[in-house]
Amino acid sequence: MFDPLLAEIQNQGRQFTVYEGDEESGIPSQFETHAVSVRQEELPPGGPAPFVVIEQDGEFAGALPVDELQKLIEPPIVRPGERTDVSEGFGVLFEVLDDTVFTAMNRKQLLAVSREIEDRATRVRTGTLRASFQNRSRLEPQIELYRYLASHTDLDIHIYGIEPADASPIPGVTYHRGAQLDRYWSLAFDGGDHESQSCALVARETPNGYDGFWTYDPALVDEILSTLADCDDSSR
Amino acid sequence: MTDNEFSETEGDEPVGTIHLDDDELYRALASRRRRRLLYMLLVEEESTVQKLATVLAGWGATETGRMATPEDRRDILTALEHHHLPLLAESDLITYDRRSGVVSLGPVDQPVADLISRSVESERQQHS
């Protein structure tokens, strides 16, 4: 169900090449979880200061000294001017920073991200929250939270992966079987009255765990919400 | 000495090896961009015009502190292809295959290699 989206996120044709000498900048590990592939090239000791070459689809987009890049990626992220009039290199760099983290994840990390998404929904109290569970036992530890959200907030809550007939009904929660979602662990919250709070997680089970991404990009969150909504049982 | 990896030392050096008393050498070194290019080839021995342009663009960015743009790199590439590489090839300091874009360092003796390294390294010291 989410495979096309996952493929799109994972491979965006972006490449950073870090040119550095013996002293390592740590740039490759800083971008480890971002949607960009990073490689290293060695600079001779008498050569230039370390720099990063940014490429998109095999084309040179820009090159920036590592110390300038460090300044840009240390929070708070400072951006030179508006997105539209900065050079291509910054465009690619900020896409990488903004977007979306594609990575291998274990259950513990997935739980942490899931809690973050549920927390946001709990605080905002409005909007739509869609959550898929691979089976009922995954829902069990969270059921009290969803019961609380359904009774104490205005959230529209949809839970996937549970046969509606088997579920203990909670007013305000709609269950969907969503058999297409069995391989995925996904949550999405549209941010309700606060779009900036929108967030989503999509992960796919692999033989070694999970891989996937989470995002705070409202457009992407929207796409994930509609993919989940496509799995709604028609008999509602 | 046997005929092994040491065979390219003095007395047995490749034909056309560049020495410090070759006048052409000084013309070739009379440009920062060419010195850097030769320096990169000393380290890598062989490269491509595309990669040389990329590294020179990045090198430039480390001095300006600004993002090098695709236009910056394109200008460098044009200058390499039409000016610097033909000039260096003519002095036999490099070989340049226009079709494949492969650039290789020609035979230079150790004093020439040292001179190239020192000219680039002293430039960095002045900057820092």
Structural account:
The complex is a heterodimer of chains A (236) and B (128). Chain A has 8 helices and 11 strands. Chain A has 236 residues and is an alpha/beta fold. Chain A has 2 domains: 3-99, Glutaredoxin (3-Layer(aba) Sandwich); 103-229, Endonuclease, Chain A. The longest helix of chain A is centred in the middle third of the chain and has 18 residues, at 107-124. Chain B has one domain (22-127): Arc Repressor Mutant, subunit A (Orthogonal Bundle), CATH 1.10.10. Chain B has helices at residues 23-28, 32-44, 49-64, 70-90, 110-127; strands spanning 46-48, 94-97, 102-105. A 3-stranded antiparallel beta sheet of chain B has the order 1-3-2. In chain B, helix 2 (32-44) crosses helix 5 (110-127) and helix 3 (49-64) crosses helix 4 (70-90). The termini of chain B are far apart. In chain B, 31% of the residues are buried.
Give the topology, please.
The complex is a heterodimer of chains A (236) and B (128).
Chain A: H1 3-10, E1 14-20, H2 27-30, E2 37-42, E3 51-56, E4 59-65, H3 66-73, H4 88-98, E5 101-105, H5 107-124, E6 128-132, H6 136-139, H7 143-152, E7 156-160, E8 173-176, E9 184-189, E10 199-206, E11 209-215, H8 218-229
Parallel strand pairs in A: 1-2, 6-7, 7-8
Antiparallel strand pairs in A: 1-3, 3-4, 5-11, 6-9, 9-10, 10-11
Chain B: H1 23-28, H2 32-44, E1 46-48, H3 49-64, H4 70-90, E2 94-97, E3 102-105, H5 110-127
Antiparallel strand pairs in B: 1-3, 2-3
Helix pairs in contact in B: 2-5, 3-4
Low-confidence stretches of chain A: none
Question: Which structural class is indicated by helix and strand composition of chain A?
Answer: alpha/beta
CATH topology of the largest domain in chain A: Endonuclease, Chain A
Write down the Rg of chain B: 16 Å
Q: Largest interface, per-chain counts?
A: A-B, 22 and 24 residues
The pLDDT mean of chain A sits at: 85
Spatial strand arrangement across the major sheet of chain B: 1-3-2
- Helix content range of chain A: 25-40%
Shape of chain B: globular
How many helices of chain B? The count is 5
Give the termini separation of chain B. Answer: 44 Å
* Oligomeric form: heterodimer
Roughly how many Å is the radius of gyration of chain A? Answer: 21 Å
The overall average pLDDT of chain B, rounded, is 86
Based on CA inertia axes, which overall geometry of chain A fits?
Answer: elongated
Please, how many helices of chain A? 8
CATH class of the largest domain in chain A: Alpha Beta
Number of strands of chain A: 11
Helix content of chain B: 55-70%
Parts with pLDDT < 50 across at least 5 consecutive residues of chain B: 1-8
